[in-house]
Amino acid sequence: QAKESGRNTLRFFDPKIQQELYLQAEMESELRRAIADEQLVLYYQAQTYLGKITGAEVLLRWIHPEKGLVPPGKFIPLAEQCGLIIPLGNWVLETACRQLAAWADHPELSKVTLSVNVSAHQFSMIDFVANVERVLRETGAEGKLLKFELTESAVLIDVDSTADKMMQLKDLGINFSIDDFGTGYSSLFHLKHLPVDQLKIDRSFVRDINEDPDDLAIVQAIIAMAHNLGISVIAEGVETEAQKRCLEKRQCRHFQGFLFSQPLPLDQFENCDIDIFNYETA
Ligand code: C2E
Ligand code: MG
Ligand code: MG
Ligand code: MG
């Protein structure tokens, strides 16, 4: 910024830009305090298979003292920019793992998996694996109940070191899902060389699946790709029975979306009335 201001000083007299920079700086310092002040919470959105819950995606929420509930779209990008995504991401991982450990003796919830969104920046940290290992040890959570959602861009930054890290994390039992699949640029070649367990079809393709033949074609291609790679496929953003039926007809059986459940605060998720899917009796 300092470098830019030399040449483009005029820019900063634009009151709109000045206002925006001010708001951004304010939000950054508020977000910095949010962790310590316990303003962050996790919501849990069910992931289903054959009509039963197999797990949940944990979605970060910021309960701002004045603004109320702030959705992640409003602060994750900023957190990525200013590096706060690292402490935020750590908080999410620790909280999710503590929850898994708390459910360990629960008659039903002990088999529920938690999917954690890991940002590219967070995943690229040199101590990421060591940190995950430490969190698993300190919380007592089982690695096999943990799933990381990575985006295609996160995976592609440095494919060799990504593969390396993913292998080490797989040794801890952790599974991998490629989030928002179809919106990035990952090639089959790269996928083949990475220990990916699941593709997650982006909801932008699911939305008009019954109206737009191009979206349907993309979804069918993703499902075929997953099956050919021998991995599972989940559709996100499933809102209607018609979307679900269309996906089922194409052999997609893992779902997440408002049709099944909204993202819920912990107590509501624990008491929601969808059955738990038990792999051992299936
Ligand atoms: P995502 O990982 O693709 O998460 C799915 C988003 O779709 C969530 O938005 C969820 O509430 C929303 N969604 C789920 N089902 C439906 C549906 O049926 N219809 C519609 N219209 N939307 C649905 P949310 O919670 O606002 O999160 C937005 C994004 O913020 C996430 O996209 C993810 O990229 C990011 N995010 C959320 N929590 C975290 C986190 O803990 N760490 C990181 N790095 N990113 C996070
Ligand atoms: Mg996700
Ligand atoms: Mg997603
Ligand atoms: Mg998405």
TrEMBL record:
Residues 24-277 form the EAL domain. Signal peptide: none annotated. It is found in: Cell membrane. This is cyclic-guanylate-specific phosphodiesterase. The chain holds residues 611 to 892 of 892 of the full protein.
